[in-house]
């Protein structure tokens, strides 16, 4: 996998070369995890380190290249640094020697574009103390905390940690329930989980594991079976389940087997509601019926993985969509959080995976260019349900009163 972020908050460390960003990473981590040197530009690509932050838990620190790097290679490093902004939950801007100028101002503009909370550390105060005037100006202008600090003599490290605790959004590490608003104590939820070529050896896939844990956390009962046991179990089961959740790949069979009186959805749609842009997915999915010949479809995977001969995003969805639309369509797949190969306006539709490996903020930032450009977006599970004619049933458990019916017809 490219990165198993799950619910871990990511904290990015930014600033000019040789301001001591890597030293701060090492101080926070309590060990030498980032290369430290007096030579400017030592850090080239973003470096990640998992740490434990009191009051928050498991977190990831991301060290970045200097925002004042130079030359052709330096510009590429700066671009890598800026690409980190869409993956983090909190930014720390490191300055030194009371220097604050255009580099920092431009970076703060980027923070605000991504709606990122941030604070400022004036590092190396063992060499130069923070000017009271500069501290007052920055605190007043940017409405954030400015901490005078020394990575070599971190006497006020607790102040830095407290600032991180205060500014990291709780949503970055405290996940809302997947299904809690749909379940009551003692409800039974039936999970249909195919064991096919894409199932990991000896394991369940992450959304299935997350669903089981969430059901148990809500004092409900999880029953797990494969699709071929479904009919037999439904005939014997009493009372019926409060909800059935299936893998999208067997939607048609499960839809045919489960009585229409029982709510039915998929693991992917469950995740779409939990941390995707569900309302925009609902509005965008019907555009599957409006595609034209030669349209380009962008498929966004959230992780890199071994591609099987029956891969859901790369093989099955394109095949199903070709059959459904009857059009000659072109597909581009982007794995992980890589940059898009083309301008977003060139696509007729974006299809985002469930996103089990990334956070809500990452998905929102991933989809933001498409939404701002007016390009329809949907989700694996919702697209699969739509092309199989069971879209309305599959999203019905999660439709809120505020979404107009015409938005999902």
CATH overall fold name of the largest domain = Rossmann fold
- The oligomeric state of the chains shown is single chain
Task: Give the CATH H-level superfamily of the largest domain.
Answer: P-loop containing nucleotide triphosphate hydrolases
pLDDT < 50 stretches:
1-6, 31-44
Intertermini distance:
36 Å
- For the record, the CATH class of the largest domain is Alpha Beta
- The helix-strand sequence is EHEEHEHEHEHEHEHEHEHHEHEEHEHH
Report the C-alpha radius of gyration, rounded: 24 Å
* Class from helix and strand fractions: alpha/beta
Total of helices:
14
Query: What percentage of the residues does DSSP assign to strands (E)?
Result: 15-25%
What share of the residues lie within helices?
25-40%
Structure description:
By secondary structure, the protein is α/β, with parallel strands linked by helices. The chain folds into three domains: 10-172, 3-Layer(aba) Sandwich (Rossmann fold); 180-269, Rossmann fold; 278-407, Rossmann fold. The chain contains 14 helices and 14 strands. A hairpin with a 3-residue loop joins strand 2 (47-53) and strand 3 (57-63). It is globular. Residues 1-6 and 31-44 have low confidence and may be disordered.
């Amino acid at each position: 996998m490219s990165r198993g972020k799950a619910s871990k908050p990511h904290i990015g460390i930014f600033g000019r070369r040789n301001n001591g960003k890597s030293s701060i990473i090492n101080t926070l981590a309590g060990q030498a995890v980032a290369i430290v040197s007096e030579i400017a530009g030592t850090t080239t690509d973003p470096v990640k380190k998992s740490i434990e932050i009191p009051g928050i838990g498991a977190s990831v620190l991301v060290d970045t290249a200097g925002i004042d790097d130079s030359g052709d290679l330096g510009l590429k490093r700066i671009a890598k640094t800026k690409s980190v902004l869409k993956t983090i939950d909190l930014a720390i801007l490191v300055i030194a020697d009371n220097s604050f100028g255009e580099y920092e101002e431009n970076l703060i503009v980027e923070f605000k574009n991504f709606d990122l909370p941030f604070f400022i550390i004036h590092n190396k105060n063992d060499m130069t103390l923070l000017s009271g005037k500069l501290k007052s100006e920055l605190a007043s202008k940017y409405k954030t905390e400015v901490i005078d600090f020394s990575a070599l003599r971190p006497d006020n490290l607790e102040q830095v940690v407290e600032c991180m605790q205060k500014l990291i959004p709780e949503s970055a590490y405290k996940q809302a329930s997947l299904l809690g608003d749909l379940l009551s104590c003692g409800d039974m939820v039936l999970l249909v989980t195919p064991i096919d070529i894409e199932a990991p050896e000896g394991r369940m896939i992450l959304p299935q594991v997350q669903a089981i844990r969430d059901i148990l956390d809500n004092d409900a009962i999880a029953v797990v079976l494969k699709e071929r046991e479904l009919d037999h179990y439904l005939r014997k089961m009493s009372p019926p389940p409060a909800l059935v959740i299936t893998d999208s790949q067997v939607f048609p069979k499960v839809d045919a087997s489960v009585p229409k009186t029982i709510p039915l959805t998929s693991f992917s749609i469950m995740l779409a509601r939990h941390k995707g842009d569900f309302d925009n997915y609902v509005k965008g999915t019907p555009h599957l019926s409006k595609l034209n010949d030669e349209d380009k479809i962008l498929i966004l995977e959230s992780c890199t993985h071994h591609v099987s001969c029956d891969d859901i995003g790369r093989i099955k969805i394109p095949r199903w969509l070709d059959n459904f639309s009857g059009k000659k369509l072109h597909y581009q797949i982007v794995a992980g959080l890589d940059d898009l190969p083309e301008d977003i306006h060139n696509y007729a539709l974006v299809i985002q995976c469930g996103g089990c490996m990334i956070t809500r903020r990452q998905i929102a930032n991933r989809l933001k260019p498409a939404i701002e450009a007016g390009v329809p977006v949907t989700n694996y599970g919702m697209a699969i349900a739509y092309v199989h004619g069971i879209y309305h049933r599959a999203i019905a458990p999660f439709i809120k009163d505020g979404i107009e019916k015409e938005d999902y017809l």
